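Case 164 in the screening queue. Each case pairs one protein sequence with one candidate compound; here the compound is adenosine-5'-diphosphate. For every case the pipeline is the same: read the inputs, emit a complex structure as tokens, and attach any notable structural observations.

Predict complex for case 164.
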Amino acid sequence: MSNMRTAIYPGSFDPVTLGHLDIIRRASVMFDRLIVAVMHNQNKKPMFSVEERMEFLRRTTVELSNVEIASFGGLLADYARQQDACAVVKGLRAVSDFEYEFQMALANRKLNPQLDTVLLMTSAEYMYLSSSVVKDIAVHGGSVAGFVPDRIMQDIVRRTRKEG
Ligand code: ADP
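Case 164 output:
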């Protein structure tokens, strides 16, 4: 097609955190086009629907003109081929993330030899941050300020009040 370099950043984003947003910002300057892709078929029961998670992502990345929000099911290697992507972006928070990501990266490259994996190290201030930490805090009535983008804070508070 073109020589545009497209990368995919896949995840559950349930919901998007400042740690995710940091990876999105950093990856968006490395590639011509970055697709942030919400995965379907998660085993864990999500708090937000795929559509809600996509809407949160869209709201928090409007200023980033080369970032697109999408969703996919099935194999990442196939989705990457469809999107003409040359790379998958993942974030690493700790050494414990590494083993899993290493295995996935090798499997994905076997399935799609055009696809490389780029692992971005977390920014130190977000090392502890995951969507599950955010959900735990919110469910127990704590403040998620400084954990998630301001633009989605109210939506999280509203949802956890309804459920709690
Ligand atoms: P999580 O519930 O752990 O946030 P996701 O599936 O939504 O899970 O994460 C998507 C990707 O973002 C994964 O590659 C994960 O390692 C990365 N990621 C999540 N949080 C951070 C963070 N705080 N810093 C760096 N990378 C992160």
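Case 164 observations:
- The first strand starts at residue 6 and ends at 11.
- Residues 95-111 form the longest helix (17 residues).
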